[in-house]
């Protein structure tokens, strides 16, 4: 007589054996916060969990079976993810990073080309407002550039000095891995439009934009192509 089989083709005896013995994981919460849940597709609360596996008999834990890798559990969908999911910024954090990046690029390009051009200031302020600083004005940007020059001892038209280069990298390096190619190019092109608002690129503006491209992990050939495309009327 053949052993009785269930719908999945496994024997009933094997199913009973699994109910008699098995493993169970006991989870312990060790932290919480907010993250971008890849399952929900939005910002959610999470718990960071550590787990210990135990061998069970009749549902009763009897022997330890080791520890589980740390896990992140979404409070909404209850999905479990590796802790590397916390490296992805939340939607709120990403918006702030993008806004700060556009603002920093605008200041760098204005510092390279000067703030005497009303057209450059208007282009810069419009881009910064579109990125999220809704109250940004041309006067505010001009004042910030003047303060930056006093702080660094740098004069308009000089190459991108170390301090300004560091600020660009601090704003752009954390953002670049989370932006697709078109998003990174868009930030560079916004800077190019500011530089071109009052005429052709100056050497200092090209130097600042090259630094922006490097911080956004855009290769030098592509930076040159994009700057040339921005200069060509559409």
Automatic annotation (TrEMBL):
One Pfam family of this chain: TerB
Domain Co-chaperone DjlA N-terminal: 101-225
Domain of life the protein comes from: Bacteria
SUPFAM superfamilies reported for this sequence: TerB-like
Gene3D superfamilies: TerB-like (1.10.3680.10)
Name of the protein described by the UniProt record: TerB family tellurite resistance protein
